[in-house]
Amino acid sequence: MDETAILHVDGQSFELPIVTGTEGERAVDISSLRASTGLITLDDGYGNTGSCASQITFIDGESGILRYRGVPIEDLAARSSFIETAELLIFGELPDPEERDVFRQLLTENSALHRDMRKHFDGFPADAHPMAILSAMINALQAYDLPEIHITDNIGFRRAAAALLAKTRTIAAASYKSHIGQPIAYPRYDLPYAENFLHMMFSVPYRDYEPTPEVAHALNMFLVLHADHEQNCSTSTVRMVASGGANLFASVSAGVNALWGPRHGGANMAVLDMLEHIHRDDIPVSRYIDQAKDRSSSVRLMGFGHRVYRSFDPRAQILKEAAHRLLESMHIKDPLLDIAQQVEESALADDYFRERKLYPNVDFYSGIILRAIGIPTDMFTVMFAIGRTPGWIAHWKEVHDNAGQKIHRPRQLYVGEPLTQWLPPAQR
Ligand code: SDX
User: Fold this and answer.
1) Which pLDDT tens digit goes with each residue over 243-263?
2) Which of 410, 214, 184 lies closest to 330, judged by CA?
3) Which site among 194, 245, 258, 421 is 20 to 30 Å from 403 CA-CA?
4) What is the pTM of this model?
5) Which residues touch 47 (CB under 8 Å, ≥6 apart)?
């Protein structure tokens, strides 16, 4: 006997089926609600609303669990490469060595940008924000990578996924080179993904940049940890745009824009700004914490809190340890890391944060790592976007492959003016 929920309204009772997920999470299926009762639900911010059933990522916010296709994030962060994790998310399983080589070859063949696309970089002002460039250039790819736009089979999808992963990295590095007035560095075909990005960012015509193993590992881990996070704001945006039938590139470009805000992927930049502000102005951490607790102030503890995690964000724990290891290996003493630790310790000892279950999230320590690698703060959210691209691609595919997929079209409760007549200007 399937479980049901009973809704009593207007003297009638309505049965609504309860559906259960792989890990025992349960949901009331309300897809028949309006037809049978005339009612809709209202859930500002969708905190109680499942938009879909998905096979890609599982999060248990109460227990701090995160798994990509069932594989714990701790295993992937410690042992997997970013591209292997991308294949796991996109194609549903860890690749065997042959699949790995085929996909790596596709990435290599699709890393370069069309010659005419490079002209766009000349058109952007030197101080253009890298997120604006990334979003614009992913959209512009549609004008040049036509075979990847009209995906008709899995071979075409595999090529398009590789092209997007490879070119997102190329665009990000090229926007940095344009910004600092250096020639754009071409991808090297003998380097893994993270190392190739660092090469394209920091090599110059007269000297190739060779990252230390620790730097390469830290960037690889950063990308793995950002690769997917189920129905977050930007991924839900990609799914919504995909539900209308938009192509992969248009949908992911929408995801880039959704990620930008300081409440979402823009938080990693905001965390660094916050730590630098505390350091530069020598603000006692306790005073900053008090400001963040004060509802009348606009100050919030950036990198703290989460829509889903009501205990620690497993990614924050891993990034904190990685930040310490990386700085130690580079013999860097970054005062901002010390300040971050003081902020974390003070907040976690404070009832305001404990009562509201506010813990460090993925953005709290990630910027310390990027800063140590030499990536400028205004590129931090671009780095988040590069990391999240496999997740966006996987979710676009899940929508695209769902034959019964409906276009996303939420309802609303209208609370505006009742029927109102138009009046000529003289009578208004
Ligand atoms: C990401 O969704 C995902 O999965 C996202 C992400 C991913 O991988 O895709 O994990 C990446 O976006 C991480 C979050 C990055 N953002 C930040 O670090 C910005 C700072 N955090 C806050 O803006 C906030 O915590 C949110 C937006 C992240 C979550 O907001 P919620 O869950 O809607 O919390 P809320 O606004 O309902 O706040 C609940 C209470 C409020 O106080 P009271 O009304 O109870 O008095 O907690 C307070 C809030 O004022 N609060 C904070 C706070 N976050 C919440 N107070 C101070 N500092 C904060 N950071």
Assistant:
1) 999 999 999 999 999 999 999
2) 214
3) 258
4) 0.96
5) 307
